[in-house]
Amino acid sequence: MLDFNIRGENVEVTPAIREYVEKKIQKLERYFTEGANATAHVNLKVYNDKQTKVEVTIPMKNLTLRAEERHSDMYAAVDLIVDKLERQIRKYKTRVNRKSREREGVAAFFQSVEDSNNTQESLDDDQDFNVVRTKQFDLKPMDQEEAILQMNMLGHNFFIFTDAESDGTNIVYKRKDGRYGLIETN
Q: Which stretches make up the Sigma 54 modulation/S30EA ribosomal protein C-terminal domain (predicted)?
């Protein structure tokens, strides 16, 4: 069951907007297993040029769904977000099903992928390094393909994971040429 946390920046979240967002995003519940509880965090932003940005993040125990969309019409942006999230879920489930056919014990893979939020750093004008946000998370064992899939679903450029075979901490990252890189630690 989905709970909603809807927030507006430079826009009032009217009952009509709230009802529309909840109605559309609740369609995603059909993909979840019974008893799965999650909170959909929805940020609605309106900029000076009347452009709207809708961000939806649904952190679950073993997976985080995330999408954002800019559009001149907020309702259209919500529709596009739901389409994006459905594509993410279908793509993810297809890969999980393929992997479960490929090797034994992967049927529970959908429950084994860990929600990951990465530490972000920013460089300010004085060239000082200031950590502006710190997050902690557990590393779950997975292979490179699973880590790349999770990284892409989160919309990040890198992902830290424990390699299921070597039990080492590794990092996958997206290269500028669109391909992927792997950093293995000793």
A: 128-182
Query: What is the DSSP secondary-structure string of 12-63?
Result: ---HHHHHHHHHHHGGGGGGSPTT--EEEEEEEEE-TTS-EEEEEEEE-SS-
Q: What are the pLDDT digits (tens) for 137-159? A: 778 888 888 889 888 888 888 99
Q: What is the pTM of this model?
A: 0.53
Q: What is the pLDDT of residue 105?
A: 45
**Where do we find the tokens 């056919």?**
101
- What residue segments make up the domains of the chain, in order of their start? 2-102, 113-184
CATH of 113-184, one of 3.30.70.260, 2.30.30.90, 3.30.505.50, 2.40.100.10: 3.30.505.50
3 state DSSP class of 137: coil
DSSP annotation of 120 reads E
DSSP at 132: E
